[in-house]
Amino acid sequence: MALLLDGKKVAQKIKNQLKDEIKKYTSKGLRNPSLAVVLVGNDPASEVYVRNKRKACEEVGINSIYIHLKEEIPEEELLKYIERLNKDDEVDGILVQLPLPKHINTQNIITAIDPHKDVDGFHPENIGKLATGMKDCIIPCTPLGIWILLKEYEIQTYKKDVVMVGASNIVGKPMSLLLLRNEEATVTVCHRNTKDLAHHTRQADILIVAVGKPHLITEDMVKEGAVVVDVGINRLENGKLVGDTDFEALLNKVSAITPVPGGVGPMTVASLLVNTVSIYRQKHGFEKHPLTDI
Ligand code: NAP
Question: Does residue 171 have its Cβ closer than 6 Å to ligand 1?
């Protein structure tokens, strides 16, 4: 039976540590860290994500500033909000919840965020620094969360064959870049046009899947004893939340696996808090947060 990589438990441990850390700062007279969360429109899934992120902020003592804007807001107006937040010294991190409405150019918005406040790590400057191994970058939250989770369970990436399925800017690409830092792992990235997906996934010591298709990865597609990280979040017609892998079938074949829910999701939120505190620390003359020191 596979070991369950319990993201919920590890995330809670991180949140407890952050809460204690923030208390130390405020007891010295420093202000609380702060995160501006911008939501455009009323997408129900985005509303849930934003609510969870804000709740997590509250739990640890991060002040969350919520800016909820109308779906039809013109791009120039949204850019003005970003500009204001960039200039506001009391704002440490800025998060714009994705996806944005179709009339807004997402890349324009991401690029407008001050790279030092880009808590999601999506700004080209941060991605470029991640790619070139520069230490002063902000690492995107889901890859950072997966990294921390693997390390917490002492799962080594060094000299391992890692297969990343999915090549999005949010998960797949930055995850592969993170694994390539310090020439840790040998990384294969698979995507929609990969000729024989199963051929690659079967080679993986560590298989990370971020596609958004339930049961994409079946039992015959994984190697015996592999570690599987399932990033996917899919709502089935019966209301059940599942990942991208055939979780039940994989349980008896792999050595470790993340559940959905309760795996990568809570780690993504915990990493958002870590990134916010890390930005805050550097603003106040401290080192970046050790969990981000990769
Ligand atoms: P995305 O932007 O839609 O990217 C999915 C990637 O998978 C794309 O590169 C896509 O290629 C590729 N793909 C599509 N079909 C494929 C196939 N049959 N085989 C291999 N690759 C295929 O999604 P995302 O933002 O990365 O998110 C992926 C999943 O993770 C979603 O379910 C999302 O909800 C979930 N997610 C979870 C967390 C968390 O914290 N747990 C965080 C972020 C995302 P094309 O671009 O060509 O379609």
Answer: yes
**Binding site membership of 243 for ligand 1 (Cβ less than 6 Å):** no
The minimum-distance atom of ligand 1 relative to the CA of 260 is 41
As a residue count, the chain comes to 294
53 is catalytic: yes
Residues 69 and 153 sit within 8 Å (Cβ to Cβ): no
Atom 32, ligand 1: which residue's CA is nearest?
212
Strand bridging mode 234-235 / 241-242: antiparallel
Helix (H) or strand (E) holding 208: strand 206-209
User: Phi first, then psi: what are they for 173, rounded to 5°?
Assistant: -65, -55
Q: Can you tell me the mean pLDDT for 101-126?
A: 98
Quote the pLDDT of residue 183: 81
> What domains appear along the chain, each with residue ranges and CATH number?
32-115 (3.40.50.10860), 141-265 (3.40.50.720)
Closest CA to 283 of 121, 56, 114, 81: 114
What's the pLDDT at 184?
83
In short, whether 176's Cβ falls inside 6 Å of ligand 1 is no
pLDDT, tens only, 87-107:
999 999 999 999 999 999 999
Q: Under a CB-based contact definition with an 8 Å cutoff, are residues 166 and 209 in contact?
A: yes
Which residue among the candidates 120, 205, 244, 246 is catalytic per the annotation? Answer: 120
Mean per-residue pLDDT for 116-130? 98
Whether residue 261 has its Cβ less than 6 Å from ligand 1: no
Phi, psi of 68 (to 5 degrees): -105, 115
Find the mean pLDDT for residues 277-290: 97
| Cα 170 to averaged position of ligand 1 atoms, centre (Å) | 9
- pTM for this predicted structure: 0.97
Please tell me if the CB atom of residue 106 comes closer than 6 angstroms to any atom of ligand 1.
no
Query: What's the pLDDT band for 10 if we cut at 50, 70, 90?
Result: very high
